[in-house]
Design goal:
Helix content: 40-55%
Strand order of the largest sheet: 1-2
Radius of gyration: 24 Å
Largest sheet: 2 strands, parallel
Structural class: mainly alpha
Mean pLDDT: 81
Order of helices and strands: HEHEEHHEH
Low-confidence stretches: 143-150
């Protein structure tokens, strides 16, 4: 960005509004960023700090390569699919709290995505046979979901 020169890029991105980080590095990284910002730039580097949850294993330990408790995301994607991994992780993540990672959540995500996919395929199959709109876009259902299929 051109530091220590006051380039246009530096002026565009410094200071910024928000920093999104985990609470475990507040002292080691965030406090140093603030002190360095005042020391070298004469300004606060950001106005707001938002804390995210930390992904932990089933025992509540922070994921770590040293402990060997981190799952391999590529293996999980190969086994369950990327959408299942995303949905399973999102489903198990309470807002602003730590996530206790369990592979069963990814499996639940896969099962949910599969049910959703099959429901959509079934709806398209039924509509293709019964719709007067063959070959054209099918309009949205006007009946409530509880009334069954359109």
């Amino acid at each position: 960005m051109g530091w220590p020169e006051q380039t246009e890029t530096l002026k565009k991105f410094y200071p910024t509004t928000d920093l999104v980080t985990g609470p475990d590095i507040i002292f080691f990284w965030v406090a140093r960023m603030i002190m360095a910002g005042y020391e070298y730039m004469g300004d606060l580097p950001f106005q707001n700090v938002y804390f995210t949850g930390i992904v932990r294993d089933k025992q509540g330990r922070k994921m770590s390569k040293v402990l060997g408790n981190s799952p391999d995301a590529l293996e999980l994607i190969a086994k369950y699919g990327a959408d299942a991994l995303r949905f399973g992780t999102m489903r198990s993540a309470p807002l602003g709290q730590d996530v206790l990672f369990d592979e069963k959540d990814v499996e639940l995500g896969r099962n949910f995505c599969n049910k959703l996919w099959n429901a959509c395929r079934f709806r398209q199959m039924v509509a293709a046979r019964t719709s007067p709109f063959k070959g054209r876009l099918i309009p949205a259902c006007s009946r409530p979901m509880t009334s069954g299929f359109c």
